[in-house]
């Protein structure tokens, strides 16, 4: 079975998160991890961005790459926080151009309570956001399982 090594970076506002939803969705191949359905996945790094504007962003991917990371996931918290991280596109571009790493925005499915609030706020009402949230939107039943 083909194997992929990944690193996960979370938004620092969730710095005490133990990664429960990320690791559950990885195990179940849900949300952004559904792309690895028929693959073996090893997590070779897990850290926070370091706090706005991303003090850990400059070097963390390099450490992960040294451990074999091929893909960096920016955790779903980047997208669902109030407000979402304003630097998502910049970080993605930087990781790709500086380290040659593939970047996926998202980890676990969007929890339903965040989905409903952001719908009310109109946070994701743009074609750009449509693209960003696509892999972690999932169906309502799945979103509710991650509340
Ligand atoms: S909003 Fe962005 S830069 Fe700020 S702590 Fe979260 S991920 Fe880091």
Verbal overview:
This protein is of the alpha/beta class. It has seven helices and four strands; from the N terminus they run E-H-E-H-E-H-H-E-H-H-H. It has a four-stranded parallel β-sheet with strand order 2-1-3-4. Helix 1 links the parallel strand 1 and strand 2. The longest helix has 12 residues, at 88-99.
Helix proportion: 40-55%
- Rg, please? 14 Å
Q: Give me the side-by-side strand order of the main sheet.
A: 2-1-3-4
Q: Biggest sheet: strands, sense, closure?
A: 4 strands, parallel
Distance between the termini: 32 Å
Output mean pLDDT: 97
CATH topology: Rossmann fold
CATH class: Alpha Beta
Beta strands, count: 4
Question: Low-confidence stretches at least 5 residues in length (pLDDT < 50)?
Answer: none
Assembly of the depicted chains: single chain
Number of domains: 1
Q: Number of DSSP helices?
A: 7
